[in-house]
């Protein structure tokens, strides 16, 4: 069972834990950490991003991990972060997701191991990928994040049902913005200027549907619903550079004449109930 995030913890605790782990494994494996132990745009930076992504996914679920990390990088991007840094961090975050999925396949009883054993396994796999050249460890790497093979494929038991009836691993007990704040990040409920919204004329590249999924909508899905729409959701996430809008983001779009409208819930002629959802406006 995924952990329920402890909101009372110091917001810097997790960040300190990850930095301390990076220093610990650097001493063990000897990867480059830069002058004065600066883990920035080097092997240590690549290790930290990849390792941290796997740790968050294992503790709290794939969607919170992907949402928090991609939201953090997206905020940096719109604030003028070097596009090469954004590319490097997003690439390595994706590698961390792949490692998490790999571990869940290889270690069915992974969460029964001690926390230190779990960390050692994750760190070992990160180092293995680094040695195989699968991580981006510097800004001049020509590989592009958008060309990386998607890896968001939750294991079957991640969609298992808790006692409260909500699917495991899908942020059922987690407020994404509180989680971001606890990790020392800014709120992910950021507005997108109308002229930059990118929602006008959006259609899902897999299905051609103009339905736009939000974090809240995905988080409330049952395991069966998520399995049905997983590929479509993943395709949408790639279009939006690894981010997923919130209900608040799309509500602001509708109120300001942006590229989105809200479709109220309704019942089809065959009796099927359709929940309310957001969809894009045509781009005339």
Features:
mainly alpha, 284 residues, 9 helices, 2 domains, 3-stranded antiparallel sheet, two-stranded antiparallel sheet, 46% helix
Task: Show the helix and strand layout.
Layout: H1 13-29, H2 43-60, H3 62-78, H4 83-106, H5 115-131, H6 176-182, E1 211-212, H7 215-219, H8 223-239, H9 247-255, E2 260-263, E3 266-267, E4 273-274, E5 277-280
Antiparallel strand pairs: 1-5, 2-5, 3-4
Helix pairs in contact: 1-2, 2-3, 2-4, 2-5, 3-4, 3-6, 4-5
Describe this structure in words.
By secondary structure, this protein is mainly alpha-helical. It has helices spanning 13-29, 43-60, 62-78, 83-106, 115-131, 176-182, 215-219, 223-239, 247-255, and strands at 211-212, 260-263, 266-267, 273-274, 277-280. The strands form two sheets. A three-stranded antiparallel sheet has the order 1-5-2, covered by helices on one side. 46% of the residues lie in helices and 5% in strands. It folds into two domains: 7-190, no CATH class; 195-284, no CATH class. Strand 3 (266-267) and strand 4 (273-274) form a beta hairpin. It is built from nine helices and five strands, in the order H-H-H-H-H-H-E-H-H-H-E-E-E-E.
């Amino acid at each position: 069972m995924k952990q329920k995030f402890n909101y009372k913890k110091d917001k810097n605790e997790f960040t300190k834990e990850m930095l301390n782990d990076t220093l610990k494994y650097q001493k063990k494996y000897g990867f480059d950490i830069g002058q004065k132990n600066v883990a920035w745009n080097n092997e240590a930076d690549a290790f930290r991003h990849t390792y941290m992504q796997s740790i968050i996914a294992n503790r709290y679920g794939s969607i919170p991990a992907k949402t928090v990390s991609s939201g953090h990088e997206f905020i940096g991007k719109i604030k003028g972060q070097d596009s090469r840094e954004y590319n490097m961090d997003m690439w390595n975050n994706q590698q961390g997701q792949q490692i998490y999925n790999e571990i869940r396949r290889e270690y069915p009883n992974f969460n029964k191991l001690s926390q230190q054993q779990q960390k050692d396994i994750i760190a070992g796999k990160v180092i293995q990928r680094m040695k195989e050249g699968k991580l981006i460890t510097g800004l001049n790497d020509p590989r592009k994040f958008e060309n990386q093979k998607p890896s968001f494929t939750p294991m079957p038991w991640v969609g298992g049902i808790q006692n409260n009836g909500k699917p495991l691993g899908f942020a059922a007990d987690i407020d994404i913005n509180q989680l971001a704040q606890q990790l020392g990040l800014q709120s992910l409920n950021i507005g997108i200027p109308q002229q930059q919204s990118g929602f006008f004329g959006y259609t899902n590249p897999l299905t051609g549907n103009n339905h736009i999924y939000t974090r809240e909508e995905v988080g409330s899905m049952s395991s069966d619903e998520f399995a049905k729409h997983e590929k479509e959701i993943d395709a949408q996430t790639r279009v939006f550079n690894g981010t997923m809008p919130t209900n608040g983001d799309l509500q602001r779009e509708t109120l300001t004449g942006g590229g989105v409208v809200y479709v109220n819930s309704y019942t089809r002629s065959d009796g099927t109930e359709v929940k309310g959802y957001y969809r894009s406006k045509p781009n005339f």
